[in-house]
Design brief:
This protein is α/β, with parallel strands linked by helices. It contains 14 helices and 15 strands. Helix 3 packs parallel to helix 4 (171-185).
Length: 384
C-alpha cells in the first residue's frame, strides 16, 4: 500500500506516505471531492466542468435541462431546477456532494422578471443539497458586475465588493441575501459548509444557447464581415470604443471558482473577478482583426440584433464551405448581448485586489485571451 491512496468504503481517500519517517506533518485524511455544478452547459459551468476534470481529483456531476454536446467524463443530470419536486426526487439521493457550484441562469425579458425564477432555482437546489449531503463543505454562487449597475450607466469605478448595489430589482442581490441568511440559520452554520460568491464580468469561452457569450458573437460577426468583404468595423457606440472595459476568461474564472471553494481564506466572502487587466476596444481591435486576417475598421454603429438577423443563410454557407461543425446560427450567437457590451459608453472597472490579497494571484491579458479562445474555436472547427 505504501505510496498510494486507499479508498475506504465510506468514500474517503487517506494519504499513505512513501516513508512515514520522512513525513513529519500530521496526516489528515484527505476528503474525496465531489462537485455538483448547477448550470453545467453554460459559458461558466461548461468551463468549470472541464477545469474540474483537468485537475483530476474531483468527481463531477452536472445539472442542466439539456444533455451535453461534448465528450465528458462527468455525470450529467437532466433536471429542471424550477421544479422543486423534481429537484427533491433527483438530488436527495446525493449524500456525498462536497462542493456545490451554482451557475445556473434563466433569462427573462426584464430585470424585475429575472428575480423570481432565478431565486427559486437557487433555493430549490441549495435547500435540497444541503439537506441530503452530509459531506457538504461549500456552496458557491456566481453573481456579476451588474450588482453595481454596470449595465445601467456610469457607476463608481473601480467597483469594490462592499459597494452598495443599485436599486432593486437585481436577482444577484436577492440570491446573495438569501444564501447569507440561509447559511446563518443553518443548524450546522459553524461546523458544516461555508459559501462564497464571485462577481465576474463578460465571461468569454465556448457555449451554445447562452444569452451572454461575447466571444462567440465576436467570432461570428468577424467571419460574416469578412465573407461580405468588409473590414472588421467596431459595431458599437463611439463611447464604447473609447471607454475602459474588462472581461473574464471562462477558464480563468473556473480556476478562481475552484480556489475560492476550497481555500479556507475565501470562506464566506464575495470576490470580483476579471482577467485582472483593463482595456479600451480601440486598442485591442487591431489584434482581433489580425487573428481573422482582416483590415481593422473604425466605429460604425449598427445594432447587431437587427443587422445580423438575416445572416443565417450566410453562416450556413460558411459552415458548409469550410467544413465546420453544423452549429445552428440561433445557438451560437445572442446578438442582444453583443449590442449591450458594445453599447457600454462608460468605464467598466471592478477592483479585483481583494481576491489577490486573499491569495489567488493568476491573471492574464485580455487581447491574448481573445486570440487563444478564437484559436480554440478554430481547432474545434467552430470557425475556419
Ligand atoms: N456570461 C457572462 O458574461 C456572465 C457575466 C457575469 C455574470 N454572469 C452570471 O453567471 C451566471 C451563469 O451565467 P452563464 O452566462 O454561464 O449562463 P448560461 O450560459 O445561460 O448558462 C445557464 C445554465 O443554466 C442552465 N439552466 C437554465 N435554466 C435551467 C433550469 N430551469 N434548470 C436547470 N438548469 C437550467 C442552462 O442549461 P439548460 O438550458 O440546458 O437547462 C445552462 O447550463 C448567471 O447568473 C449570469 O448572470 C454571466
Amino acid at each position: 500500500m505504501a505510496g498510494k491512496s486507499s479508498l475506504d468504503f465510506y468514500g474517503k481517500i487517506y494519504f499513505v506516505p512513501q516513508n512515514p519517517e520522512l513525513n513529519l506533518r500530521k496526516k489528515e485524511p484527505l476528503m474525496k471531492k465531489k462537485a455538483l455544478v448547477a448550470g453545467a452547459l453554460g459559458v461558466i459551468g461548461r468551463s468549470l466542468i472541464q477545469e474540474l476534470e483537468r485537475q483530476g481529483d474531483w468527481e463531477v456531476l452536472g445539472i442542466s435541462r439539456r444533455i451535453p454536446d461534448f465528450e465528458t467524463s462527468s455525470i450529467y443530470l437532466s433536471l429542471d431546477l424550477l421544479d422543486r419536486e423534481a429537484c427533491e426526487n433527483q438530488l436527495r439521493g446525493l449524500k456525498d456532494i462536497t462542493h456545490l457550484f451554482y451557475c445556473a441562469f434563466q433569462p427573462r425579458s426584464s430585470w424585475a422578471e429575472h428575480t423570481a425564477p432565478n431565486l427559486a432555482m437557487l433555493v430549490h437546489c441549495v435547500e435540497t443539497v444541503t439537506k441530503a449531503s452530509t459531506e457538504l463543505q461549500h456552496v458557491q454562487l456566481i453573481e456579476g458586475n451588474k450588482w453595481y449597475g454596470s449595465h445601467l450607466g456610469p457607476f463608481r469605478t473601480p467597483a469594490r465588493e462592499d459597494d452598495p448595489p443599485h436599486m432593486a430589482p437585481n436577482f444577484y442581490v436577492e440570491q446573495e441575501h438569501w444564501l447569507r441568511n440561509f447559511h446563518a440559520q443553518a443548524p450546522d452554520a459553524d461546523a458544516g459548509w461555508n459559501w462564497s460568491a464571485l462577481r465576474p464580468h463578460t465571461v468569454c469561452g465556448f457555449s451554445l444557447n447562452s444569452p451572454m457569450n461575447l466571444s462567440t458573437c465576436l467570432a461570428v460577426y468577424a467571419l460574416i464581415s469578412k465573407e461580405l468583404g468588409l473590414p472588421l468595423r467596431f459595431p458599437g457606440k463611439p463611447g464604447a470604443w473609447e471607454s475602459i472595459y474588462q472581461v473574464c476568461d471562462s477558464r480563468h474564472l473556473a480556476k478562481a471558482m475552484i480556489w475560492c471553494a476550497t481555500e479556507e481564506n475565501a470562506a464566506n466572502e464575495v470576490f470580483n473577478i476579471t482577467n485582472g487587466d483593463y482595456f479600451r476596444w480601440k486598442n485591442i481591435w487591431g489584434r482581433i482583426a489580425e487573428f481573422f486576417e482582416m483590415e481593422p475598421g473604425e466605429v460604425q454603429t449598427i445594432p447587431l440584433t437587427e443587422f445580423m438577423a438575416d445572416k443565417e443563410p450566410l453562416w450556413e454557407k460558411l459552415c458548409e464551405k469550410y467544413g465546420l461543425q453544423k452549429i445552428p446560427y440561433s445557438e451560437i450567437a445572442a446578438w442582444p448581448f453583443a449590442d449591450y457590451v458594445f453599447g457600454t459608453e462608460w468605464d467598466v472597472m471592478t477592483d479585483t485586489l481583494k481576491l489577490r490579497l486573499h491569495g489567488f494571484h493568476e491573471c492574464l491579458r485580455s487581447d491574448e485571451m481573445f486570440v487563444r479562445i478564437f484559436q480554440e474555436f478554430r481547432e474545434q472547427k467552430v470557425i475556419p
